Fold Aconitate hydratase A.
Amino acid sequence: MLFDLDLIKRVYDELPSKVLAARNLLKRPMTLAEKILYAHSFKPATRVFERGKDYVDFAPDRVAMQDATAQMALLQFDTCGRDRVAVPSTVHCDHLIQAKVGAEQDLSTAIDTNREVYDFLASISNKYGIGFWKPGAGIIHQVVLENYAFPGGMMIGTDSHTPNAGGLGMIAIGVGGADAVDVMAGLPWELKMPKLIGVKLTGKMSGWTSAKDIILWVAGQLTVKGGTGAIVEYFGEGADSLSCTGKATICNMGAEIGATCSLFAFDDKMAAYLSATGREEVATAANRVREHLRPDEEVYANPTKYYDQVLELNLAELEPYVNGPFTPDLATPISKMAEAVAAHGWPDEVEVALIGSCTNSSYEDISRSASIAAQAKAKDLKTASEFTITPGSEVVRYTIEKDGYLGTFDEIGGVVLANACGPCIGQWARHIDDPTRKNTIVTSFNRNFAKRNDGLASTHAFVASPEIVTAYAIAGRLSFNPLKDKLTNEKGEEVMLDEPKGFELPPRGFSVEDPGYQAPAASGVGVKVEVSPSSQRLQLLSPFPAWEGTDLTSLRLLIKVKGKCTTDHISMAGPWLKFRGHLDNISNNMLIGAVNFFNGQTDSVKNSLTGEYGPVPATQRQYKAKGIGTVVVGDENYGEGSSREHAAMEPRHLGVRVIVVKSFARIHETNLKKQGMLGLTFANKDDYDKILEDDLFDITGLTDFAPGKQLTMVLRHADGTSDKIKLNHTYNEQQIEWFKAGSALNLIRKQFGKL
């Protein structure tokens, strides 16, 4: 299938003149990110946008949504008054399929269990002209790469790993559902002009090293927040040597360093992938404007002049990395892994090895992993760990089955799971004898926070390339180094695994019987979208109340969070995914994973009305019933991880008024603003220590709320003393209007006459 060719040709027809206008404005050579950003400004730029400071209105080419986030996004869009989406948009059913037994049975169970939600998504997609990818079609990011991503384009998606499409030269940014509503409604989409981090890749990889190791190395260099507010642009001959899907792996996992997105320049590898996936016309059109789909030559020659930060990596010297546990930026080269296992006391036995996911499920990944698996049989080795394989799409699954790779995995005991997110997002019914026992799993996924994969705090999850994970499945030991260590086979012989070998693209081409796509009706007139008032899965939305026009006084503390607080801590996935379309039900998971500073426990906070400790959501519901507003206090990089806007909507729904933290992750801060919340940061981070459990809080300065103007928080302590502390914010004039209106969506409703 070839989608949106007219749109893509229009982008390319306009690109040369738009880049020229931007270059004349900047009066200097341009990076690739700058070319795409300026070419997609909602109105032609009349001044230079300052990186990291200026908010800019953009006009993305398309929107992509996965089923868990699409529910809330489309429930919001349904209220805004549009008859059709203004830009091409798609929904992908990949998050609600639980991995339990195997692909066929798990998919059948998911379709039955989630029928109400799938029917809702299919019907509302039909009504508003949205393409619908059925359960089993594949993971959103792999399907987008195969069908929609194109060099020089701009896309937003309601998933934090949307930047996967940067592997095809596209600026693709993860957002919350309210941002998607803006774009689908034809309105400008706002983003602070990103800073630019350049990563110069020289040399060429070989042997056991893969594209995954590049991003694992980068994560170790930049940490989980080092890319916040920045686009990471990879360049150099080393970048051009990587396969298109390898580039996508790197861009996908850029979310783990907080990057706005990551990007590679158009090259022959991308052109080959476009042709292999039935888009030769797109490759031809892109080649005609190739110079505008790459950084200018001067940027290559002197990158420090054009990027805010530059890293350099010689791929010939890179070795495989293993990152974790509990955070994706703890990077250990495999040559040091045995030493690290011993030093940290990590469980050495690898109990489960899992390959696939949106990050690493390409044909290249699977074929290289299969070459390792084939050696196990040929060399009389058996797998020592449970071993699962998650294809990224039905196109990949069908092709690797046709080419014999699924049979290879099956011969060594591998279990093929559905073309879905599965264990990567906690949709995994893991079998373990004692859930409190410390244990190790290794995956080729992207994220490895505590409880992320199986809901168990005791699980030590490590991230590596698919070929390294496959080697771990055979060896069964985290301390194993396939580059130098030997294994004893069934005959008692010592053998070594050979280097992986594979194919960037299938030699006999991609094949598929049913890719799983359902086109929308030509007209949505007459299409009914019904939500039962008694449904436990779906709930129509009511507008959030507008700001009352005064300072906020006598707020109570809901929780002072200690340490890392990701969106998984704020709004867990796993079994809670079934409530993603029901705001009140899913609000029962609000902040249940966050650690309370005052008692070191999760889901246990002091209720100031009763003096007793209890669950966070239940305590907050009591405050809401009494009309009492509350404050949540957090640490650094609050809200890192997923794009899920439920982490912002749940506190808004339950009556939390203010989130005050040391620093925010980008997407979560934006989501809070969109929902009419106050997201503020300590001007002096040490003031975090002044927050006491029984404090009352006043937020003053709101009647003069203005960009760049600090607010004040008065802490009224139980002993009668008080502190005044200054709070910073990043709200611009438009975002302040969102706050005053009660949400950005309230303004959209008003604009379209629905409020």
Observations:
- Residues 5-26 form the longest helix (22 residues).
- The mean pLDDT is 96.
